[in-house]
Amino acid sequence: MTATFRIGLVGAGRMGRTHLRALAGSDNVRVVAVTEPVAAIRNELDAPGMAVHAELDAMLHAGGLDGVLVVAPSTRHLDIVSRVAAAGLPILCEKPCGVTSEQARQASLTAVAHGIPLQVAYWRRYVPALRRLRDRIAAGELGKIYFVACYQWDAAPPSPAFRANSGGIFVDMGVHEFDQIRWLTGQEFSKMHAVAASVGTDTYSDDHPENAQVLCALTGGSTALVSLGQSFPNGDVCYVEAFGTRDAEIVRFLWPPTGDEAFLDALRRQAEGFAAMVGGHPTDGATASDAVAALRAAEQAAIAS
Question: What's the pTM?
Answer without folding.
Answer: 0.94
